[in-house]
Amino acid sequence: MARVSPEHLEARRRQILDGARRCFLRDGFHAASMQDVLRESGLSAGAVYRYFRGKDEIVVGVAQEALATIRASFERVAAAEVPPTPDELFREVFGRLQEDMGAGKDPRELPRLLVQVWGEGLRNPELADALNEAYARLSVQWARLVEEYQAWGWVDPQANTVHVARTLIGAVQGYFVQQALWGGIAPEEFARGLRALVSMSAPQRPDGAPAA
After folding, report:
1. Among candidate residues 72, 51, 83, 88, the one with its CA nearest the CA of residue 134
2. Total-model pTM
3. Which residues contact 194 (CB under 8 A, 6 or more apart)?
4. CA angle, 40 as apex, 34 and 41 as ends, to 5°?
5. Confidence band, pLDDT 50/70/90 cuts, at residue 8
6. How far is the C-alpha of 6 from the C-alpha of 102, rounded, in Å?
7. C-alpha dist (Å) from residue 24 to 14, 21, 42, 173
8. Rounded to an integer, what distance in angstroms lies between the CA atom of residue 168 and that of residue 80?
9. Residue 207, pLDDT score
10. What is the pLDDT of residues 46-62, one digit of tens each?
């Protein structure tokens, strides 16, 4: 039997994940069946089951790729000489996710998929582990970025960097939830709102001291 090259194996795996991602973006995790994945990928059941034991494993594979895209985007932007503001970081990561995950023009499509990923983590232990690891790494990355903000004088030097980091992550997650459930929030609008929020100045008392 002819030996199959690693490049061929990776191409087939890529074909399966790309097809599954299109199904999940269109129909959601639970509505999309294995038959839908097979049809979208253009491969036989035997070929697909050579790489994945079932749909749950494919869901984990798609989610892990999304998490890897977020991590790579963050690392690339955060490596800039001047640290990116949260809104710049959001635009970069969201744009990369849309491009890499093949999301269409509907701005609710990708947020709906991401919310489903979080929901799946409540029932799929393997996905839960991947999400927990990704959140822990992201918290560390954001905390380091907040430290840079402090060094530039943009954030209170006494602020707990982990608390600020988790708050910023929560704001971005909130965008995805709101967009998935109700829509009507363009990424650019959220980025502008986020920039306005993080650039707020504390109100001043009449004597010029910061208000409590």
Report:
1. 72
2. 0.82
3. 86, 87, 90, 171
4. 90
5. confident
6. 24
7. 15, 5, 16, 19
8. 19
9. 57
10. 989 999 999 999 999 99
Per-residue pLDDT tens over the stretch 121-140? 999 999 999 999 999 999 99
Mean pLDDT taken over the chain:
86
The residues near 46 (Cβ < 8 Å, ≥ 6 apart) are: none
The full 3-state SS of 40-96, as one line of letters, equals HHCCCHHHHHCCCCCHHHHHHHHHHHHHHHHHHHHHHHHCCCCCCCHHHHHHHHHHH
CA distance 78 to 9: 33
The tokens describing 33, both together, are: 């069946």
Q: What integer pLDDT is reported at residue 197 of this predicted model? A: 83
Question: Does residue 209 carry a pLDDT above 70?
Answer: no
Copy the structure tokens of residue 142: 């954001």
